[in-house]
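yo, BQ5605_C141g13430 protein is done. seq:
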Amino acid sequence: MPPDLRLEVELQPTPFPDRTRYLQAIGSLMYASTGTRPDLAYTVGYLARFSHSPSAAAWGAVKHAFRYLAGTLSHGLRYARGNPAPLLGYSDCNWGACVLSSKSTMGYTFVYAGAAVSWSSRLQSRVADSTCDAEYLALSHAGKEAIFLRQLFGELGLSSSKPVLIYGDNQGANALTKNPVFHARTRHIRLREHFVRDMVSMGDIVVQYINTGEMTADIFTKALSRDLFARHRGRLGICAP
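structure:
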C-alpha cells in the first residue's frame, strides 16, 4: 500500500458503487493474510475499515493489493530444517494512526524456525494519550500471544524457551514492564493492561529494546516505503522458492 494513502481525509470521496464486490475482495485478501501472507495484514486491516461505505480510492487501493499479490504469487513462508532458534517476538505500535478516531495501530509477530508463526495488526480499543501508553498496550497484547504459543509448542513437543523474548522499540514502555511502581503518569493505564508486568515478573516473557529500524513488527502498524517493506517482509521469512 502506498505510504501516502490517507483515505480518512477524503473530503468528498467518490463512492464505489459495488459494495458487495468490495467486501468479497477484502475477504479474499484477508484469507491470504491470515494464512501465509502476513505482509498483507496491515493493508487488509486498513482497507477493511472502509467496508461500510467504500470509495473509488479505496477500491483502487484494493486493486493495488491484488496486483502486489499477483506479482509475488510464488512467495510464501519458508521454515528452516534442523534445530530452530527459540521463539522470538516483536511488538510495535503506531501512535494515533487513525485520523478520525486517534486510535493507534498495534502489531506483533512471532518468528520460529526462520519464519513467522503468528502475527497481528489491529486498532487499539481505546485512545492512548502517549507513545509509551500505546506501546505498553501493544506489549500486553503480544505477551498474551507469547504465553499461548509457548503452551501450544509444549503440547506439540516443540522446543520453546522460557521466558519468551519480545522486542520493543520504546524504552519507556519496556521499562514499565519491569517497574512495579505505579507512577502518576501511568496511573490511568487499566489494570488488565498491567498483565504484561505480571508475565515479566513470573518469568514467562522478557522484553528487550531493539532499534526502530530493526523492528520487524513495523510492517503491521503502517504503510512503509518499498525498501523497508521488502526488508521486513524478508525477516518474516516470506520469500520466493
